[in-house]
Specification:
This protein is α/β, with parallel strands linked by helices. The protein folds into 2 domains: 114 residues, Aspartate Aminotransferase, domain 1 (Alpha-Beta Complex); 208 residues, Type I PLP-dependent aspartate aminotransferase-like (Major domain) (Aspartate Aminotransferase, domain 2, 3-Layer(aba) Sandwich). It has 11 helices and 13 strands. It has a 5-stranded mixed sheet with strand order 2-8-7-6-5, with helices on both faces. Strand 9 and strand 10 form a beta hairpin.
């Protein structure tokens, strides 16, 4: 049937999300979802908006949401762009800033959607190696790059790059756009949004999916100089002038305004992450330092594939990547404390059996 496909569709290598098997009930520690539900305030606001006004188009600019984000970060509305999850915002960014430029640059171990976007939008790219500690070495970034993008904390490693190093990148590359993908920043890192006013080539992208428990609503946003935001708006309005639905707008506003619940959930995830890191280290795992809601770990003797299969057989899903650079590692999403206790217990049993 692929005789009807375009050449592009034939040659694409799509992004592969974490598996979602339906054959049994699993403890899902493979997709970096928040283990805690949206707050009662969020759910109440969404339920209250399920009414006859759903027959109307939503605000194409999501103005009220932009004002809530602006108030939270103490910035201007003109610095904000919103979209259907951070993945859509990323896609628009590739088109707005990287299309028809010199090859862009990102780490060789990073969010696997980046090369997918490059392929679909026909953007050349170069990858630079992380250092021996899986950290970004800014000296390895190509001087003639047409753009730079990286997650911070990085995915799938969870390793965080501090603001001083990000500022060095911005100073070194003042004439290209630097996109910092902060999907996991709320789990212990410091956002570089504070650098946007000083560096007009910086675009910061965040999501409501992780720390605000709204993966099902698909809401993301970016913050940058108004000139960058206008480019994103031009691209967005050439695809879809109504990016966010009414319920997503209402739910996101409630989520960003319920700061008490947000902080409580993040703190619990951070505490549980440290518990899991200590437990796995005691079982002879190398545990990379993480500022995300997951850990990237490697056992000293047992293969990641064997551990992955053993956990799956016991009803626990974690992420194992085929990339040869990291196929000895597992990425484990941080769930609730009792879920992590179950994961550790299963790990101990697998290790003891081998």
């Amino acid at each position: 049937m692929n005789k009807y496909w375009s050449q592009l569709a034939t040659t694409l290598n799509p992004y592969e999300p974490g598996e979602q098997p339906q054959d049994r009930k699993y403890l899902k520690l493979n997709t970096n979802e928040n283990p805690f539900p949206p707050s009662d305030v969020v759910l109440s606001k969404i339920k209250g908006s399920v009414c006859d006004t759903l027959r109307l188009y939503p605000d194409p600019d999501a103005t009220k949401l932009k004002f809530s984000i602006a108030n939270y970060y103490n910035i201007n509305v003109d610095n904000i762009f919103v979209g259907n999850g951070s993945d859509e915002v990323l896609a628009f960014s590739f088109l707005a800033f990287f299309k028809d430029k010199s090859a862009i640059t990102f780490p060789n171990i990073t969010y696997s959607f980046y090369p997918v976007y490059c392929n679909i939008f026909e953007i050349e790219f170069n990858e630079f190696a992380l250092d021996s500690n899986f950290s970004i070495d800014i000296n390895k970034i190509e001087k003639n790059s047409g753009g730079i993008i990286f997650p911070n904390p990085n995915a799938p490693t969870g390793v965080y790059l501090g603001l001083p190093d990000i500022e060095k990148i911005l100073i070194k590359f003042p004439n290209i756009v630097v996109v910092v993908d902060e999907a996991y920043i709320d789990f212990g890192g410091v956002s570089c949004i504070k650098l946007v006013e000083k560096y007009h080539n910086l675009l910061v992208i965040q999501t409501f999916s992780k720390s605000r428990s709204l993966a099902g609503l698909r809401v993301g946003f970016s913050i940058g100089h108004p000139n960058l935001i206008q480019a994103l708006i031009r691209v967005k309005n050439s695809f879809n002038s109504y990016p966010l639905d009414s319920l997503a707008i209402v739910g996101s506003i409630a989520a960003i305004e319920d700061n008490t619940y947000f902080t409580q959930c993040c703190n619990q995830i951070i505490q549980t992450r440290e518990y899991l890191a200590n437990e796995l280290a005691s079982l002879s795992f190398l545990v990379l330092p993480s500022k995300a809601n997951f850990l990237f770990v490697k056992h000293s003797k047992l293969s990641a594939a064997m551990l992955y299969n053993g956990l799956k057989e016991n009803g626990i899903l974690v992420r194992h990547f085929s990339n040869p650079l990291v196929n000895d590692f597992l990425r484990i999403t941080i769930g609730k404390k009792e879920e992590m206790i179950s994961c550790v217990k299963c790990m101990k049993s697998i290790i003891k059996a081998h």
